[in-house]
Amino acid sequence: MMPRFGPLLLLLWLAGCDLTGPYQRAGVWRPNHANETNLRAMVEAPADLVVATPSARADGGMAAAAVARLRHDQVRPLLDSGLARIVPVSGGGAGTPAAAPVGGPGP
User: Fold this and answer.
1) Which one is predicted more confidently, 42 or 3?
2) What SS3 class is residue 51?
């Protein structure tokens, strides 16, 4: 007797799932498309949301060379802009304590 009514009971039980859905219950947050609204407000050219504009300055060769230098441990040092002193904060190891900043205004 149970095998005949099993699928029917399962169907009735699943029909009640819409009442337990996180967006279907009363008094819960409902999606209001805030991300899309903010994106449309921030985008410079609204047509870019339909068809993207490719970047003319993309250089795959330059990016590949940078990755190759990273993999072969030949990373170039950062250029000194004169605006701020570049100080390594950590030696890279998990057990190495972070170094204190050198110079600069104090509190």
Assistant:
1) 42
2) coil
Task: Return the DSSP state at 93.
Answer: -
Judge contact between 85 and 102, C-beta under 8 A: yes
CB burial string 76-88: b at 16+ within 10 A, e below: eeeeeeeeeeeee
Which amino acid, residue 42?
M
What is the reported pTM?
A: 0.28
**DSSP state, 3?**
H
Q: What share of the chain is helix, strand, coil (3-state, %, to 5)?
A: 40, 0, 60
31, 23 Cβ separation under 8 angstroms: yes
pLDDT digits (tens, 9 = 90+) for 53-105: 777 777 788 889 999 999 999 988 877 777 877 777 776 555 555 555 555 55
